[in-house]
Write a structure and sequence with these properties.
By secondary structure, the chain is mainly β. The chain has 1 helix and 8 strands; from the N terminus they run E-H-E-E-E-E-E-E-E.
Length: 128
């Protein structure tokens, strides 16, 4: 194995269409394409005014979310926080989280340690 791997995140497969979520945005998970064994990395793009349709949490994985462009809000358990470009947000594993883009959409880079099978989806996380 090479000592490095280079991939452009926009060239990584967009997983959103496989799950019927392409109307909301993009979700590109690059860990495997990078050959990363201990780190996870993802690129998310939410279209203007859209929100993730479910929340998620982990048992072990702490994540850092960096807003690359645009902005919006994140719901973490019962708290909602505003986000703007270059905000870096650390989220502890057990916290359920979901993002909502503002009028300019939102691009996020997400990274943290990879733990196989660590994670749970929480449907209908945003209040109606």
């Amino acid at each position: 194995m090479s000592s490095f791997t280079l991939r452009n995140l926009r060239d990584v497969e967009d997983s959103a269409p496989k799950f019927g979520l392409d109307a909301v945005g993009e979700a590109r998970f690059a860990r495997e394409e990078l050959g990363a064994e201990q780190s996870g990395v993802a690129y998310h793009r939410l279209k203007p005014g859209c929100r993730q349709s479910f929340g998620h949490r982990h048992d072990e994985a702490e994540e850092v979310h960096v807003v690359l462009s645009g902005g919006g809000r994140v719901r973490m358990d019962e708290e909602i926080v505003e986000l703007r470009p270059l905000d870096a947000l650390r989220i502890a594993p057990a916290v359920t989280r979901a993002f909502e883009a503002g009028p300019d959409g939102m691009e996020l880079l997400v990274f943290g340690a990879h733990h196989e099978g660590d994670g749970a989806l929480v449907p209908d996380f945003w209040p109606a």
